[in-house]
Amino acid sequence: MKRDVIVAVSFLLAFLFIAYAVVYINVLGLGGAELRPLGEFYLGHAFAHEGLTSHSPEVVTAIVWNYRGFDTLFETFVFFLAIMGAFSVLRLTREQESIVRELEAKEPHRQMDLITRATTKLVVVMIVAISASIALHGHLTPGGGFQAGSAMAVALLLLFAVFSKFTLERKGLNLRHTISAYALGLALILATVLAPVFLYGGKVLEINLLPGETGLFNLDVGEYTAVTFGFLTVFLVLGVSEWIFKTVLRGEVDD
Amino acid sequence: MRLRFSPATFFIVLATYLFYTGSATEYDIVTGSIVALIVSFIVGHWLVENELKFFSPKRWFYAIVYALRYFLIEETKTHIDVAKRVFTLKANPGIVRIPLEVESDYGKVLVANSITNTPGTVVVDISDDGKWLYVHWIDVSTLDEKEVKGSIVAYFEDYARKIFD
Questions:
Q1: What range does the domain containing B157 cover?
Q2: Does the pLDDT value for residue A95 go beyond 80?
Q3: Model pLDDT, residue A32
Q4: In a designed cystine with A118, which of A29, A175, A200, B105 is the match (CB 3.0 to 4.6 A)?
């Protein structure tokens, strides 16, 4: 008891001392530091309407999709490969899928209690609105496609945890839908990336040739769709309980 | 999958979108409306079952009155009560069962969350039929159902019924 108090107080004092040293004595040299030349270049060119620019007042988005656009583009495809890898390891044939559905229907599916369900309904709808705002406003304020997709994945996880995977599947959602939507998102990204080459004779990813902020907007929306449905695909695949999955696989071995 | 439009959901989504975005330019309102339209068509009446209830000014009025009364008066009272207990160490904790009369799910949530949010009482569980709340109470002074309900739930349920039922 006494030791706890001593530890807590000494931590408090240490943090106070560090905060004081960093803020007022400027030990790390963070306070009042001038903008470095590289930062100045980015800030100066992100919103300029000519040259190296993506017409975005949001410097981070401009850097992510323009200055290091290839990096982001390939990240998207690494994510795609990862999800397709998971999907191909855990894939099932149509017959196996129908066996899984039969086995799952026999299991008692329980939902969480009434309070959690009612609250989750509201929270999920609000998270969807917020994630859409992060994606569609990503070229104007901090945000962007990947962040928005991750936020959306939280809403999906909440649905899975509080209701159940079957709630979504009974409404008619299946892997074919999610993968098609995923492909649609990727197609939008690819089309936007290649459009400057075919329409304006520019280079790949030279999205500042596209009118206004179309380029960034399309990329954000495409990334948002891709990440959301990528996560949803993985959740649906991993949502099959292990004993069902193993039962189905063993059935294949026995035949 | 049947698609049904729900104006209340549209309103909630659009409001959240604009609030989170932090600006209401033409672009925001157009994109927000499109998102809200899509969400409200997909979700339908899942979130809001009765549209008329949502757009009833009387219910909103009661909700505001309840919020003011709860956060300004009830919270202060229970905070002072628990603060006193911290110093005098007078506690007699235990779990009690409280019958619920409010019909709608959201009403039950309002009552349960109001109880949990006041210091000294925490809703531990709700029965499967949603008619009983199990509450951990810092000071079990009585076991009589009516008195327990009177001192824990107080006026929460009257307002919950006016707002949601």
A1: 85-164
A2: yes
A3: 67
A4: B105
Listing DSSP states for chain B in one string gives ------HHHHHHHHHHHHHHHT---HHHHHHHHHHHHHHHHHHGGGT-S-HHHHT-HHHHHHHHHHHHIIIIIIHHHHHHHHHHHHHH---B-EEEEEE----SHHHHHHHHHHHHHSTTEEEEEE-TTS-EEEEEESB-----HHHHHHHHTTTHHHHHHHHH-
Give chain B's residues under pLDDT 70: 1-2
Residue A35 lies in a domain: no
- Using a CB-CB cut-off of 8 Å, the residues of chain A touching B126 are 113-115
Q: Are residues B152 and B97 in the same domain?
A: yes
The nearest CA of chain A is from the CA of B21 a distance in Å of 6
Q: What is the pLDDT of residues A103-132, one digit of tens each?
A: 888 877 777 888 999 999 999 999 999 999
Chain A nearest-CA distance from B6, in A, is 13
Nearest by CB: B109 against A119, A171, A172: A119
Residue from the list A114, A125, A172 with its beta carbon closest to the beta carbon of B43: A125
Look at chain B and report how many structural domains it folds into: 2
Residues of B in contact with A133 (CB under 8 A): 16-17, 20-21, 32, 35
* Residue B132 domain flag: yes
Taking the whole predicted model, whether its pTM rises above 0.90 is answered as no
Out of B20, B105, B108, closest to residue A133 by CB = B20
Cα B45 from chain centroid (whole Å): 19
Taking a C-beta distance cutoff of 8 angstroms, is the pair A73, A190 a contact? no
Are B47 and A122 within 8 A, CB to CB? yes
Average pLDDT, chain A: 86
Domain presence at residue A19 = no
ipTM of the complex: 0.89
In a domain, B65, yes or no: no
A171 contact residues in B (CB cutoff 8 A): 1
pLDDT tens, position by position, A150-164:
999 999 999 988 988
* A-B Cβ pairs (cutoff 8 Å, strict): 70
CB contact set of A173 (below 8 Å; sequence gap of 6+): A236
Q: Are the beta carbons of B105 and A117 separated by less than 8 Å?
A: yes
- Please check whether residue B160 lies inside any domain of the structure: yes
Q: What is the mean pLDDT of residues A38-57?
A: 74
Res. A230: pLDDT tops 90: yes
Range(s) of the domain holding residue A199? 58-254
Q: Touching check for A2 and chain B: CB below 8 Å? A: no
> In this complex, is the C-beta atom of A191 within 8 Å of any C-beta atom belonging to chain B?
no
